[in-house]
Amino acid sequence: MNLRPPALIALAGLSTLALAACSGPTAATDSAAAPTAEGESFTVVATTTQVADFTRELTEGLNVEVTQLLQPGMSAHSFEPTPADLVALGSADLVVSSGAGLEEWLDAAVSSSGYAGEVVDASANVTLSGSHEHEHGEEEHAEDEHTHAEGEEHSHEEEAHAEGEAHAEDEHAEGNPHTWTSPANAKLMAAEIATHLEELPGIDAAAVQANADAYDAELTELDTWIAANVDAVPEAERVIVTNHDALHYYLDQYGITFVGSIMPSFDDSAEPSAAEIDSLIAEIKEHNVKAIFTETQLSPQNAETIAAQTGAKVFSGEEALATDALGEPGTPTGTYVGATVHNTQMIIDSWGATATDVPEVLAQQ
After folding, report:
1. pLDDT value at position 170?
2. Backbone conformation region of residue 100, classed left if phi is above 0, alpha if psi is from -120 to 50, else beta
3. What is the dihedral of CA 179, 170, 26, 243, to 10 degrees?
4. How far apart are CA 135 and CA 351, in angstroms?
5. CA nearest 139: which of 243, 298, 275, 319?
6. Under 8 Å CB-to-CB from 250, ≥6 apart: which residues?
7. How far apart are CA 149 and CA 138, in angstroms?
8. Contact of 125 with 188, CB cutoff 8 Å
């Protein structure tokens, strides 16, 4: 999943070639955001489809060109930047990341690109929660400690060193990194991005703030609509199973029970063991879960296998959830608001209910 140093060295060596090919398929520039006001122009590189969408909302009508690194359908967990991405990073006025340890490849890519400016962590004001590992990981850790106690000894100094190394490797993993799924968190993330945009020398800070206020109002409307629809369903029926643990903050905000996920962690590149699948099947049956949600960036194969043994319906294809990545521009899931509306409609439908009409301000997204 991580971009290895040799790969970065190779990419850095290709940067000159990428200058002549920076219109490649990965580093996509928002050509629709043509300058509409007089004054200096700016280039912002955003990592994920979600923070790129937030940035476009905040810079609407301004001379800001937004380039997003991840494209629709891509997973942030397994992404590796291309030479064109490094060129885009190196020439940016500002880099915006989702943060919370999601983009494990970003630090190395920024260093290789030569970018020396600020990297905005959009999740800076989000309270992280959610476990990085499933319980079996803790059990394995306990077994390792037990084996060590009975086996060879080592000094407390060695223990401290080992713990220090583990902390250094996992210090980003303080919680689930899919922070944007909760509209409450999306509001915090958009506000954090707006703060740093307003600090760009020469930008129209008042216009950024006006856009931020308007977008915050939309997200408030989105939150109100979701809450009303979820609250209309009996609490005992608010259960969900997904491909991977991507909806943690959304589920927590609206009081939805997360029965489990097919992937054993919130990394969608992980693979479940036979024992984990058997355990999930038992949980689905125990909680009378009627649906299993796939996600747009993942194959429905495992979900279909489990559904065959539980009788649950698989939501895939156009019914799949847009979690790690938004859809193509102009589609119902092409914006954060549109994707969250879609996800909510599918979840409500899986409970045998029908979501109310979408407020006009949200339907326009």
Report:
1. 39
2. left
3. -60
4. 28
5. 275
6. 181, 182, 256, 340, 343
7. 17
8. yes
Residue that the structure tokens 């097919």 belong to: 262
DSSP category for residue 358: P
Q: Which two tokens stand for residue 172?
A: 């980003």
Coil, strand or helix at 270:
coil
pLDDT (0 to 100) of residue 114: 97
Q: Do 65 and 29 meet the contact criterion of CB atoms below 8 Å apart? A: yes
Task: Count how many residues are written for the chain.
Answer: 365
Residue ranges of the chain whose pLDDT lies below 70: 1-39, 131-173, 365
Alpha carbons within 13 angstroms on the beta-carbon side of residue 294 total 22
**Residues whose CB falls within 8 Å of the CB of residue 33, separated by 6 or more in sequence, listed in order:** 56, 59, 60, 64, 65, 66
Element (H, E) at 45: strand 42-46
Encoded amino acid at 172, one letter: H
- Nearest C-alpha neighbor of 177 from the set 238, 57, 257, 97: 97
* pTM (predicted TM-score): 0.81
What is the dihedral sign for C-alpha 178, 184, 190, 194? negative
Q: Which two tokens stand for residue 151?
A: 């086996």
Report CA Rg, the chain.
22
Supply the pLDDT for residue 136. 34
The alpha carbon torsion through 235, 237, 243, 245 (nearest 10 deg) reads 10
Q: What would you measure as the largest C-alpha separation in the chain, in angstroms?
A: 73
Q: d(Cα 180, Cα 9) in Å, to the nearest integer?
A: 32
8 A C-beta contact, residue 44 and residue 89: no
As given in the structure block, the two tokens for residue 113 are: 């690109």
Q: Is the dihedral of CA 251, 252, 254, 258 positive or negative?
A: positive
Helices (H), the chain: 5-13, 15-19, 49-58, 83-90, 106-113, 135-150, 156-170, 183-198, 205-231, 248-254, 274-286, 301-310, 336-350, 360-363
The residue behind tokens 């000894």 is: 153
Contact 190, 181 (CB under 8 A): no
Looking at residue 317, what DSSP letter applies? Answer: G
CA distance 326 to 48: 9
